[in-house]
Amino acid sequence: MSTQKRSLLKVIVLGDSGVGKTSLMNRYVYKRFTQHYKATIGADFTTKELDIDGKSVTLQIWDTAGQERFHSLGAAFYRGADCCVLVYDVNVLKTFETLQIWHHEFLLQTNPSDPDSFPFVLLGNKLDVDGGKSRVVFEKTAREWCGSRGDMPYFETSAKEDYNVDDAFLCIARTAISNQHDEQEIYFPEIIRESNSEIEPRERCAC
Ligand code: GDP
Ligand code: MG
Q: What is the CATH number of domain 2-198?
């Protein structure tokens, strides 16, 4: 049995409804994509285990449940985040303009000790649409936005065509590691806690 410590990193994904947050997560974790629009039901997280720079980490990626429309995600969603991923659609200007609100809201909710150095990563998604002809937000503009916010890393992605998604999440994992909390406060929804209650005693160590 491995005695290596596995770190748990909480990553939250924010951005307007329809920009492809759920699709990016599904592409990265399950290697799949669906054209059918389905609003995510119930605040949810998905985990992905990976080895990175010799460390074993579990990424816990939190996706919104469609409540992003109302900008009301609740404190549990934000609690203990190690990295915040902001997503916009390069073909829809409004989704880029709203980033400012998401960025502000995250800092308001989490109140990090040093807001200027909290790790964010920006993703400009749906790069594939119309072969790039319908694009309205250009890379230069996005990079300038990132530059004025502590040199936030930026990736242009396509969840549909699996472009840059792995690279983006690798950077997200590294960024989260750099901000890892010493004391992990891991939030599990009630339903998961209940369903795991039977196996809990076996998982506890003997001491
Ligand atoms: P969310 O509301 O931000 O979670 O967005 P979804 O992941 O549900 O995606 C909204 C719609 O955009 C769905 O119909 C997806 O199939 C589509 N979509 C997501 N990512 C891409 C992409 O990279 N390219 C294209 N062409 N469509 C995408
Ligand atoms: Mg979604």
A: 3.40.50.300
